[in-house]
Design brief:
This protein has about 120 residues and is largely without helices or strands. Helices cover about 0% and strands about 0% of the residues. The protein has no helix or strand. The chain is globular. The termini are far apart.
């Protein structure tokens, strides 16, 4: 069964490699958390605080990040294929080598975002 972590405060949490597939993290505070190589496949992470979060190599395939704040987040090498980043703030985030194939970036804020070698095919 999916984990319901709605509005939970996980700021600064050590969750590297955690399995949170299908979890509901809507409104959660994940700022400065370490979610490197975590599996967040199909997770609901809408309107969440992900500032400075380490998501290096994380699997966010088909995740819903609508309206989330990902400023200065590390998404280097992460899989965001088919994810929803509509109205997400990715200012100064590191998306280098990330996979954003078929991601929804409608109205996303990409100010000073590092997109070196990012795959944006059909995004």
């Amino acid at each position: 069964e999916e984990a319901d972590l709605t509005n939970v405060d996980l700021s600064d949490a050590e969750l590297s490699g955690a399995y949170l597939g299908d979890a509901n993290l809507a409104g959660a505070n994940l700022s400065k958390a370490d979610l490197s190589r975590a599996n967040l496949n199909r997770a609901i992470i809408t309107d969440a605080d992900l500032k400075w979060t380490n998501l290096f190599g994380a699997n966010l395939c088909m995740a819903d990040l609508f309206g989330s704040d990902l400023r200065k987040a590390n998404l280097n090498g992460s899989n965001l294929g088919q994810s929803v980043l509509w109205k997400a703030n990715l200012s100064e985030a590191d998306l280098s080598t990330a996979d954003l194939r078929q991601a929804n970036l409608r109205e996303a804020i990409l100010y000073k975002t590092n997109m070196w070698s990012t795959n944006l095919e059909n995004a």
